[in-house]
From TrEMBL:
All copies of domain Sushi, residue ranges: 134-191
Gene3D superfamilies: Complement Module, domain 1, Spermadhesin, CUB domain
Protein name (database record): CUB and Sushi multiple domains 2
Protein keywords: Disulfide bond, Repeat, Signal, Sushi
PANTHER family: PROTEIN CBR-CLEC-78
Coiled coil: none
Domain annotation CUB: ranges: 2-131
Stored Pfam families: CUB (PF00431), Sushi (PF00084)
Intrachain S-S bonds: C162-C189
Keyword Acyltransferase tagged: no
Alphabetical list of SMART domains matching this protein: CCP, CUB
Length: 198
């Protein structure tokens, strides 16, 4: 549904008509607001970034499906509630290659979906969930792989490896940065090439 104000803690956002092709000249806006934007911290040494007396929830956006006309149709993702404010833009997404996760830095996130008048593709499906400040969110585990580490706070490190018949493509180790983004995308496990002896 276009032009929607959503409240956490989680949900799904899709392009119009998804999983059928989106319309030409689409202009859709979504603003997501944390269900409980301020949480009082009673801990003396809190792992969250404290702002006065309170800590703020923020959002994690995970891609499920993404297929837009490269360079012409875009999904812009920003921080806060001011849709279109260029100072708050986190990503301008187009084509099929997008980050696994996008994490906001405050209790609101906005999305702006714009298409041209020529081609239209399948569009996108993304899930969002409310997470605590100071977290990067769970990047997941690669198919045919395993992960060492189960916490996702600033400074935490995750290590990945693949099952025996697969090899790792990407970074073996990723770290949760203070920007609430992982240092690299989650790696993937691909089948090793089998060479035949002639």
């Amino acid at each position: 549904m276009c032009d929607t104000y959503l409240r956490g803690p989680s949900g799904v956002i899709t392009s119009p008509n998804y999983p059928v092709q989106y319309d030409n000249n689409a202009y859709c806006v979504w603003v997501i607001t944390a269900l409980n934007p301020a949480k009082v911290s009673l801990q003396e040494l809190s792992p969250w970034k404290e702002l006065g007396c309170c800590m703020f929830s923020m959002f994690l956006l995970k891609k499920q499906q993404f297929d837009l006309e490269r360079g012409y149709d875009t999904l812009t993702v920003g921080d806060g509630g001011q849709v279109g404010d260029q100072k708050t833009v986190l990503y301008v997404l187009t084509g099929t290659t997008v980050p696994d996760l996008i994490v906001s830095t405050n209790h609101q996130m906005w999305l702006l979906f714009q298409t041209d008048s020529v081609s239209n593709l399948l569009g996108f499906k993304a899930t969002y969930e409310e997470i605590d400040q100071g977290s990067c969110g769970d990047p997941g585990i690669p198919a045919y792989g395993k992960r060492e580490g189960s916490t996702f706070r600033h400074g935490d490190t995750l290590k990945f490896e693949c099952q025996p018949a697969f090899e790792l493509k990407g970074q073996k180790t990723i770290t949760c940065q203070k920007s609430s983004q992982w240092s690299a995308q989650k790696p993937v496990c691909v089948c090793k090439s089998v060479r035949r002896l002639l």
